[in-house]
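Section 3.1: Structural characterization of target chains.
Under the original work plan, the team committed to producing a structural model for every single-chain target entering the pipeline before any wet-lab resources were allocated. The record below documents one such target. The sequence was received from the expression subgroup and is listed exactly as submitted; it comprises 441 residues.
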Amino acid sequence: MTTAPMPDFPAGFRWGVSTSAYQIEGATTVDGRGPSIWDTFAREPGRIVDGSTGDEACDHHHRYAEDTALLAGLGVSAYRFSISWPRIQPTGAGPALTAGLDFYDRLVDGLLAAGVDPVATLFHWDLPQALEDAGGWLNRDTAARFAEYADVTAARLGDRVKLWITLNEPFIHMSLGHGMGVHAPGRVLLFDAFPVAHHQLLGHGLAVAALRARTASPVAIANNYSPVRPAGDSDVDRAAAAYDALHNRLFTDPLLGLGYPDAPGVDPTVVRDGDLDVIAAPIEVLGVNYYNPTGIRAPEEGSPLPFEIVPLDGYPRTAFDWPVAPDGLRELLLQLRDRYGDALPEIQVTESGCAYDDAPDAQGRVDDPERIAYLDGHVRAVHEAIGAGVPVTGYFVWSLLDNWEWAEGFTKRFGLVHVDYPTQRRTPKSSYAWFRDLVRR
């Protein structure tokens, strides 16, 4: 880790941390909440590495006041959380549950009282199971249901939430949940998953209109981006371009009025007249989630994919075996600037973080110097991008708490705060103190 002083960021730069509902809330049967696709998926044998579920997770639903105090102690200006769709509409349609909205009402009021801006994500992958039973995101009707959910939620919270994010990482939800089957709902469609992409984006556009009718707060979407690093033979450039179009452009080009790129699997017959205009509704913020670059080489003969993802050598690795590459964050931010020019809205880095095997020492302290080094490098990369003219106005660490990490269960820890899952004891790590001191500057 560099010992150089951290450079100054622009006045008003938003420092925050992020979480998601299914990963921390628990209380999956409280107050009428319906089942989500992750409740179903986690109960299928062999789906989750340690056989766990999010039934209790971090028990945030009952401990939100304690977690709000941790946010206040951290001194961040914003907290990005997600709202559980099945906690608001158990079947994904119909009247909103008062008890579900009451919980988020209390959370939002508590955040404001602590001086923390609420940043709410409407969909962080926990689709109501009833909608999945009707086809899920393969069904165009789900986009309309999502807009109704946005409307009833913003009707209650729109006067206090400071930034609305419609979807979290629609590429990951499409590719891992519907293309490869390693996330909920577990479909293996490969490139036949394109309708999931289009209907998520259509739902985003319809939700933007619903939010505009209820709130004056800015609206965003949070995409996962990964700069592509070619590796291999003479066909690798073609393979890298195909992967870049799929991962980095499929969910951004149409948002910014460019239509769909020439990406694998794009099926124009799914797109109806007027859809692209709905999808391209102006947004104030583009959320950028970044973890690592992707190594790509040409596929072996007979592969169903036009590329092969390969490890990148020469980088430190996280406990997820992801390469630690702060230069990748700077690279993608510059790429977004160069690719979209004046069409690019304000950017906030809505997720950036790393998993390590953190554990308390004999005195109960949790020292995580690798996470501090990771965050230091990535924050500096953001500063360099700002200096190069990229309109970045915020940085959110993933995550506030160690949590239930999707298919990895409780085996991967991303938090600034250590959670002892049997007791739910929270212990701020040394990275919590590092980030607190950075924010104070």
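The mean pLDDT is 97.
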